[in-house]
Design a protein that fits this description.
alpha/beta; four-stranded mixed sheet
Length: about 525
Amino acid sequence: MLNRKKGLILLLAVVLLFVGIIAGCGSNNEKNEAGESSSTASPSSKPVVENTKPVELSVFSWMFEGADSQDSQIYKYLQEKLNIRLKPITASWNDWEEKLNVMIASGEMPDVFVSYGVDRPVQYRQWIKESMLLPLSDYSEQYPNIKASLANFEHLAKTTDNKHYALPIFNESGSGKMAVSGHNILIRKDWLDKLNLEVPKTIDEFYAVAKAFAEGDPDGNNKKDTYGYSSSAGGIWWQYPLFNAFDTSTDRWEKKDGEWAPEVLSDETKDGLSFLNQLYKEKILDPEFMLNTDDQKIEKFITGKVGIMIHNANATFYNDFYDKFKQAYPDADPKSIFTWVGTLVGKTGAQRMDGFNNFWAETSINANISDEKKKKALELLDYLLSSEGQQLMMNGIEGVHYSKDGDKITPLMTDEEKGKDKAFSLKALVSWNSDFLADSTPNKEDIVAMAKSTGDFAVPNPLAYLNINPEELDPSIPSQLNDLVNEKFVKIIVESKDVPADFASFKEEWLSKGGTKVIEATNKQAQAEGR
């Protein structure tokens, strides 16, 4: 390994060379074929420490408050492992995006930050145009874990000249799925039992059960004061699993005879609207479905005003519902009160659940920071994406947060004690790990089964992130058409006496207000991208 020179070697050179050999032997930077560190050991409480001054990085998200606490074992580990010092910048959930935009506009872009990225295409492309974001693709060969993660999202790079300027924060750990679903149809099991009904499996059974919940006095108070089904968030978006049962949606496209067409104009969408209109007219659908906040919808479900709702249904939400039912009915097992439906068998006999890209939000690096900071920012993301980094952020430090016997991991802290270490939130720079459930997670088996009941049927959006040039189509037109859909569909559900006629009028208005241009631009760009 040494480059031996002929002749005499100065004593000083010998000493320096010797020191270099010792330092090299003491490092652990060998890479395996996958590019990750060859070490498979769990994070220990004593990482290798560099002897240089730590590099400070500002990191922005709505969730990083307290991540730099000196009481945090996780933060101390990251500090020593990567020789960094983090400066968290936070905001509330309600104003984080506004705060980030103000910081960037005033020339104070954080070193590393979470944003909606490609989901705000106009803003995101402007940042790229102004050279504000580091092109991660240019550095991926040096950081194998970043490279491997970006490889799962090549379709996103097509929207920005085949380069990634942000790291998608993935939802599932190595699932390989293009689409995921964290939503479900939740139902009152105690009402099913009271009325001798089974969990509905088809859209027709959904109607029959919802009707029985509205008319069969499931709460036993001898009053007709319950509704079969309720919703929230403007009344339309949360209806997508029901539209899916008619093999359609209000915001996706389908390919017919070689041309892309918006499903919102299809006969199947008309049938879905007729179904919801029937639920409303028969007082099966909560009349406040278009006014409820998510919290109000959940409260009606918990307190027994409605029997079915569609909502987020991951581990956090499931256990939140579980705890709410336990508080409302202290003498009953919550599992005897509520359960889930999963993906309904639709009118065609198929099961469809519109899934979402297996990432949400993205992490970017400021392109205008020093090379030293860029290097440390990339090292931080690459480490968090590594097997060791994922292990650290999910389970913690062996001997501190958990003990290990073979492959079995035993927590040494309660979830509450572990949750006090806010540095665990830093995993959200690269991953949500919504599919990761520690063995200690309450109701783990039910949560896994519930997730499979929709996740196994999740389908990706075929035209997700289609990159239509603003010169080809005014970006405001799709937004205006989306507002039109929400307005007209709620009106059809609530007021229509002739759904086919009202739907035909909606189609004409949609096309006349820019829909024809959207169809032309969409097909032109889809053909250019080979979709």
